[in-house]
Design goal:
The protein has 196 residues and is α+β, with helices and mostly antiparallel strands. It is built from five helices and seven strands. A hairpin with a 3-residue loop joins strand 5 and strand 6. The chain is globular, with a radius of gyration of 22 Å.
Length: 196
């Protein structure tokens, strides 16, 4: 009836006004972080994160979209290397990751830019910490800025931080299984005369 329609309209307007008031004033996204302990050496695990071609083997994106397409810079290892991906799955989308700084067997820092289904920029790092001769701890941290106002609006009702941490957790779990089930690389032997 007309009265109910008016009430519903008022109620819907109030909901929209409430959502607007709840919208975060900052477009900064809280940092997502997660860690995993892997039975391996820093030397062995580093190549799985520093060479971007290896990300296909353990990132969560491949599981979400088995036909995702990748493209790479000529050199996929070290600072300046990059990879791009394109997927029709909206949970994967289209974007680019670039290594901006790294230290061998210790960490990589990267920039991340998504262009589809919405725009988002972030930066992150993966740090390798030696625990003992048999184990290392990997800590992955990522944080950035949400597109205004779409992603900020969505972030009021579903946490991007939780979504990203879920992907990070899955990626680290995949990496742990991959590394621990693959024959370990050995450090190159150093001849005494090279130390002079």
């Amino acid at each position: 009836n007309p009265v109910s329609q008016v009430k519903n309209k008022i109620s819907n307007n109030n909901i929209q006004e409430t959502k607007f008031l709840l919208m975060p004033k900052s477009n900064a996204m809280p940092k997502a972080t997660s860690s995993v302990v892997i039975k391996t050496s820093s030397y062995n695990v580093f190549f799985y994160i520093a060479d971007l071609r290896n990300w296909e083997k353990w990132s969560s994106w491949k599981k979400k979209d088995p036909i995702i397409t990748y493209s790479y810079s000529d050199n996929t290892f070290g600072a300046g290397s990059w990879m791009e991906w394109d997927s029709k799955n909206p949970n994967v989308g289209k974007g680019k990751l670039k290594v901006v700084q790294f230290k061998k067997f210790h960490h990589i820092n990267y920039s991340f830019e998504m262009s589809k289904p919405g725009q988002m920029k972030s930066s992150g790092e993966i740090v390798i910490e030696k625990l003992n001769d048999q184990e290392v701890k990997l800590t992955w941290t990522d944080g950035g800025k949400l597109q205004y106002p779409l992603y900020r609006w969505v972030n009021c009702f579903s946490s991007f931080k939780e979504m990203i941490e879920k992907d990070i957790n899955e990626g680290l779990s995949n990496l742990k299984v991959l590394v621990e089930s693959t024959p370990q690389r050995m450090l190159p032997a150093v001849k005494p005369d090279t130390l002079r």
